[in-house]
Amino acid sequence: MKRTLLSLLVGTIPAVAFAQQQPTVEELWKIIQQQQEQINELKNQVNTAKVKVEEIDVKVEATADAIENSVVSAGASNSLAAWAEKTTLGGYTEHHFNDFEDSDNEIDAHRYVLYVAHQFSDTLRFFSEFELEHGVAADGEPGEVELEQAYVQWDFLENHSVQFGQFLIPVGIINETHEPDTFYGTERNRVESEVIPATWWETGVMFTGELSPGLTYNAAVHSGLEVPVEGGNAFRIRSGRQKSAEATAEDFAFTGRLKYTGIRGLELATTFQYQQEITQGLASDDASAFLTEAHIAYQSSGFGFKALWAEWDIDGDDFEDANADSLGGWYIEPSYKLTEKLGFFARYSEWDRGNRVNSDFEAYDYGINYWIHPQVVLKADYTDTVGEGDEADAFNLGVGWSF
Question: How far apart are CA 154 and CA 127, in angstroms?
Fold first, then answer.
């Protein structure tokens, strides 16, 4: 009996203890709510971590794209920089005012020229000039849009190169160098304009190089002139320029020049040209022609001097009958620069233009140039045409620049 009671007492103790430790329903509900809060907090932490991971992925992807774009952009920039480094832009402009004695005065946006060049390699280059003359080029307007030069030059040997394309003929003083800040007078001299005739370009192949220090050569085969034999401009050399505009090419021309610049300030040059048929078949018989030109240009301190002579010898009955088989001209031009900015000049010229009333001309030009900048010049001069062709007397003003 005692054992039974003791056993009961011993067995009752844990039950009572358990009954005392067992939570109530309210306590259980609180525990459940606390656990739910903990679960929600853990879920929020997981979701936040997931968002952060996604944000990191986005940032990493954006960084990668930025790096890739930066590399591409850097490549494009480097390519553009390399192109710009090898490309040259330039040009020149002339505006003229002419106060003619025997006709209306005139203001003219005479020339606007853009120059573009590019170097493909150390031995291969491209050159071009694009020109707008007289402001407006359209039907009934006086202006023209012209491609004056467009050629590639390849240095095939040291000090020797070849040009392919459209280039200026190596003849005279101003035909190759005619930016307004490089010569005296508002208008270009008439001998080179009418006889040579500047500015004159053709399409073909030209070799150039140095034979010895200061002595260079040019040798070219190219398209030729197409001088008319009828109309108001008959037998006028200047009217024969085809300007590589669907130019008739039945007969070609050949040009050679020697130039010496071995003494500082001195240029001596002579050009010879042969035209197989200077009318491209317009004449009744063969009209082959030969041009000879020689000039000197010298500059020492403030003193300058230029002299040029050019003459055409043309075969064929049409030119002989028109007394136009020998056309030529010459001029001399002394000048002096009082300062780096102010210079004076005088020029005497004689020339003829073939079969035309009053075809022989004689002129005196004199005036001043004032360089605001070495490449920006103001000009004032007077032209007095005398003798058989007493026309075009004028007071001229000009402004020009190159860059």
Answer: 11
What is the DSSP annotation of 21-42? HS--HHHHHHHHHHHHHHHHHH
Tokens of 298: 């010298």
- Residues in the chain, total: 403
Distance between CA atoms of 113 and 91, rounded to whole angstroms?
A: 5
Q: Which amino acid is at 215?
A: L
CA distance linking residue 395 with residue 372, whole number of Å: 21
Task: Give 118-127 contacts, CB < 8 A, sequence gap 24+.
Answer: 118/86, 118/87, 118/88, 119/86, 119/87, 120/86, 122/155, 123/154, 123/155, 123/156, 124/152, 124/153, 124/154, 124/155, 125/152, 125/153, 126/151, 126/152, 126/153, 127/151, 127/152, 127/153
How distant, in Å, are the alpha carbons of 120, 215, 283 from that of 155? 12, 18, 40
Dmax (CA) of the chain? 171
**pLDDT 10s digits, 225-239:** 999 999 989 999 999
Query: Worst-scoring range by mean pLDDT, 66-70, 77-81, 333-337?
Result: 66-70
Contact 275, 249 (CB under 8 A): no
Q: Which of 129, 160, 161, 157 is nearest to 145 (CA)?
A: 129
Tens of pLDDT, residue by residue over 264-273, are 999 999 999 9
